[in-house]
Amino acid sequence: MSTILVTGGTGMLGRPVCDALRGDGHEVRVLSRHSPPYAVDLRESGRLVDRAVDGADAVVHCTNILRGDAKAATNLIDAARRAGVPHLVYISIVGVDRMPYAHLKAKYVVERLIERSGLGWTVLRATQFHELLFKLLEGLARPPVMVLPKGLAFQPLEATEAAARLAELATGPPVGRAEDMGGPEILALAEMARAYLAAARKQRRIVETPLPGRLYRGFRHGAQLAPEFPVGRVTFEEFLTGRFGG
């Protein structure tokens, strides 16, 4: 079986990637800031990064750094080159090339670095995970009035399904840009908010309001959606049931 390094392997996505790979019998190394023996910040290159990638058959890059994403990716790519790693897999976000948002722009920069790295590479773009949208709604529901940006929709995806797809890609040959991965349904944010409130047994008045700016226009035009690829199976309502109970 293969030896596969997972960066960010203790995170929301990285952990189920590791579980999926181990379940298929692969040897998994976890690189994160607080996980020995490869406890390292990827923004700092060094021997520990070289040790982590040495002898790996593939690297799955799940680390999500809000500041320093490109630096971390550059250090990882350099170490992978030195070690002769044959396959680098990266999880990205649908719409990174179309949305004027700093975090998404940074993810697109990392995509380009990987594409030009000279390594065998695979990039999977996914829509927003259930957990992230849940946290968004949880925050919006704190005041007595739940104010939502008007006209937004999302295509929520179960993180464990994305993890299974990443594990599958990591154990195969490099494919370049893999097909995008979206959740099973496209839901208006207001519809998701009502489902969240019902599941959480909260009473809130919902008010939708338009917002200014290019980012909001991008979301309204659906740049964050992958309607051609509704490959996920777990719906947002099913996720909420699992979170709160039936």
Structure at a glance:
The chain is of the alpha/beta class.
Topology:
Elements lengths: L2 E5 L6 H10 L3 E5 L15 H7 L4 E4 L7 H15 L4 E6 L8 H14 L5 E6 L3 H11 L4 E5 L3 E2 L4 H12 L5 E2 L9 E2 H12 L4 E5 L4 H7 L15 H9 L2
Parallel strand pairs: 1-2, 1-3, 3-4, 4-5, 5-8, 6-10
Antiparallel strand pairs: 7-9
**What class would the helix/strand composition place it in?**
alpha/beta
Write down how many β-strands occur, each being a DSSP E stretch of 2 or more residues: 10
Number of helices: 9
Q: Uncertain regions: pLDDT < 50 for 5+ in a row? A: none
CATH topology value: Rossmann fold
* CATH homologous superfamily classification: NAD(P)-binding Rossmann-like Domain
Q: Characterize the largest beta sheet: strand count, sense, and whether it forms a barrel.
A: 6 strands, parallel
User: H/E order of the elements?
Assistant: EHEHEHEHEHEEHEEHEHH
In total, how many domains does the architecture comprise?
1
Helix content: 25-40%
CATH class: Alpha Beta
Mean pLDDT metric = 94
- Looking across the biggest beta sheet, what order are the strands in? 2-1-3-4-5-8
Distance between the termini: 40 Å
CATH architecture: 3-Layer(aba) Sandwich
Protein model, in words:
It is built from nine helices and ten strands. It has helices at residues 14-23, 47-53, 69-83, 102-115, 130-140, 159-170, 189-200, 214-220, 236-244, and strands at 3-7, 27-31, 58-61, 88-93, 121-126, 145-149, 153-154, 176-177, 187-188, 205-209.
